[in-house]
């Protein structure tokens, strides 16, 4: 092994280590490698930056814009509502229709974006039908991963593999080259999850209001706030009566976080928005969160003229629409990830107060404000619905899960859905027919979305997941560095020496296993960047066709079913589905093996190795 190759392997090992550790961010790691590779003298600065000039990188950015156009026009959410109206109350039919819809939509837009759109829709449906969310959320994420196997543009690894073929002088894949493999795997996934979801049905169906919304009682229970939540009725002589919440400053002065204000009516009671201008009256009951001890609470209640009663009897607060309380989730690309609530200045930035945190099935008690937030965490927020409405416009730092019935539809260009669908259809027709190169077809689609005002320029720039763009552009130079130093040839020779004598099926199986296992530690895009050149070099050295080897790498890169950290879509569903790490192992590992078996049966059949 030469010194240059040792240096490249050292940098690659460092990058993989940082990817696995999760620090720094993956795009920062890519930037570090862009700087480091030219310093070694192996690549020039121009070669290190050449990844950003690849057509596949521009194509991925354009597809993010087209996907955002579908979101802003409400196409995706309308599809979810249509599914909800046709389930007939059957959980099996709901799961099948959702998997088909997510796989179809995800084949032309970001799978992470599709899951982010569908999670609130699914939460509303399962609450209305009284189905445990855990039975539906994992099928949702599996369908999103399978969507990457449906078309050439279904996921960035497909485009990375296709670019590797083009760089080596081969023709590349067509738009629907992946469909003969993805469609059987999707049908297999539906059949598998029909049985396997029963293993996830250990949670009782969620309690819900009349319109499928979570109740205040349910949210308090889910976030472990029963012991720290209290009802405080304002007595006639209380100094709080007649003053607004803003003037009283109950959180800063007394540590009381007001989650709701219950005001008695003639024959019933109603919940008021706990906004700053809300003026308290004698007889009102405050539903509050207090982190102190029971003794401290009793002493504070006596001092403020409040009648205290703990919230252990949740039946007394079952209201279908608690005002000012909502559940949200942190998406993978959120600026809140890695920061605490205090560091994010949540109250001043969003006008909302965090009162609870859940990570998977674990509800955090104390230390909520100081805990570093992670992708997939769900937060319980208190604040005006107008602030929640505003937070869901443009680039969202968090996704609203428990969307109230009176919150208006967040599709700013809903009247332009036909134009968005027309733009998408034009792009697909141009890609399939080959009238224009794929990247040009996608750019035409972006211009059509802009021309039809389905999306504006600012929203288009915000829609691009720059972290993915920088990751791909920063990792692509590794392929060139490994090629120049002989690393790819050495890896191909090692694979051939290890299993070459066993035949092409053994080579394909080895490539699938190596790609899938590598994807457990680093992103599937980075995995494709590393494995695609090895696969193509192996095929060329043995005189085989490169297409089955490239295809097996692409399929394996999308088979990220085994752990919640294998893919952003798995992290997204972990909180709403109340999953543990072991749930993905129990369900994902057998399915990955099935996908490998199907892939090994179909790939050599449809893409002969000779």
From TrEMBL:
Listed transmembrane segments: 5-22, 28-45, 57-75, 95-119, 131-153, 173-195, 421-452, 464-482, 494-514, 520-537, 549-567, 587-607
GO molecular function: monoatomic cation transmembrane transporter activity
Residue span, RCK C-terminal domain: 217-307, 312-397
GO BP terms in the entry: potassium ion transport
UniProt superkingdom: Bacteria
Primary location class: membrane
Name the record gives this protein: SLC13 family permease
